[in-house]
Structure to design on (306 residues):
């Protein structure tokens, strides 16, 4: 049983506040419904999605040391709701904490660059945690179950973790990076049925999309087909970038693979929020390019505003 309000320094990321703003909207709606307090890091910068280090590891470390330092200044853990942001920022935090022991001069170099821009220094005093694991480890599945007012009985959900969430950091204390169960356990907690398929822990293809679009869409199409063939009513992902490739580009994916798909893609907070009574309209489900109506029909929610 929770004895205090959970508070986090919230890093919303770029995609969830831009192309897919319903994902930020649904995270805020869910945490409000659960009584979790988010302090948004409005001065935070894009994590770089793994591209900064292609030019310079120092660039990636410095930009994200600043993001972490903003959370440290509030004495709060940094909360992400994006697999990619979690992977990048979490990896930087892990790397800099290791350097504090083995190469303190490197951390001093990072902090000197931050100082030149009048930024607070990185101290290594907090942690970077994805919403999924904050819900499972800090809030608990039992507390989520207590909040469920709308059992998602009969809904078959296929998790799509995204590769960054599971394997970008050396240590994964919350789950098995190759055989994870955290999302499936959340599905069970809200009354839904988890669907297992090969692609649930693989890359969605987003990193390839800017220079190898056909290959990217083939990867996305393979995963969606596997989920459909396994009986899924929807794919649920904790990553806005995966959401872009699997939902926003699904029509383009269909053209590449020569098969009609039409599988709804939900952001993890949207699924949980439906179970705790938040309306589909509040969650922005009407903004998805692949219609979420089949999910709402299965749950008997079509009379609510979509």
């Amino acid at each position: 049983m929770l004895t205090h309000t959970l508070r986090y320094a919230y890093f919303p990321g770029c995609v969830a506040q831009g192309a897919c703003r319903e994902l930020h909207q649904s995270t805020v709606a869910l945490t409000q419904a659960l009584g979790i307090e988010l302090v948004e890091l409005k001065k935070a910068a894009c994590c770089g999605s793994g591209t900064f280090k292609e030019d310079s590891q120092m660039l990636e470390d410095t930009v994200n040391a600043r993001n972490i330092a903003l959370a440290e200044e509030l004495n709060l853990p940094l909360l992400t709701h994006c697999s990619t942001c979690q992977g990048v920022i979490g990896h930087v935090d892990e790397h800099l904490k290791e350097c504090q022991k083995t190469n303190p001069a490197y951390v001093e170099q990072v902090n000197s660059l931050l100082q030149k821009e009048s930024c607070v220094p990185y101290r290594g005093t907090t942690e970077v945690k994805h919403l999924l694991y904050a819900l499972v480890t800090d809030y608990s599945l039992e507390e989520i179950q207590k909040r469920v007012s709308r059992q998602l009985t009969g809904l078959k959900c296929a998790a799509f973790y995204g590769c960054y969430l599971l394997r970008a950091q050396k240590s994964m204390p919350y789950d098995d990076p190759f055989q994870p169960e955290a999302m499936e356990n959340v599905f069970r907690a809200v009354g839904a049925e988890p669907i297992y398929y090969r692609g649930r822990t693989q890359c969605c293809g987003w990193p390839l999309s800017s220079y190898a679009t056909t290959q990217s869409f083939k990867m996305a199409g393979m995963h969606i087909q596997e989920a459909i063939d396994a009986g899924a009513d929807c794919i649920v992902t904790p990553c806005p970038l995966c959401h872009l490739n699997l939902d926003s580009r699904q029509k383009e994916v269909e053209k590449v693979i020569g098969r009609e798909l039409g599988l709804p893609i939900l952001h993890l907070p949207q699924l949980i929020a439906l179970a705790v009574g938040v309306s589909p309209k509040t969650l922005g489900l009407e903004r998805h390019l692949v219609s979420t109506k089949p999910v709402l029909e299965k749950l008997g929610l079509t009379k609510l505003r979509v």
Remarks:
- Residues 83-102 form the longest helix (20 residues).
- The chain has a mean pLDDT of 94.
- Residues 61 and 95 are 8 Å apart (CA to CA).
- The first strand starts at residue 7 and ends at 11.
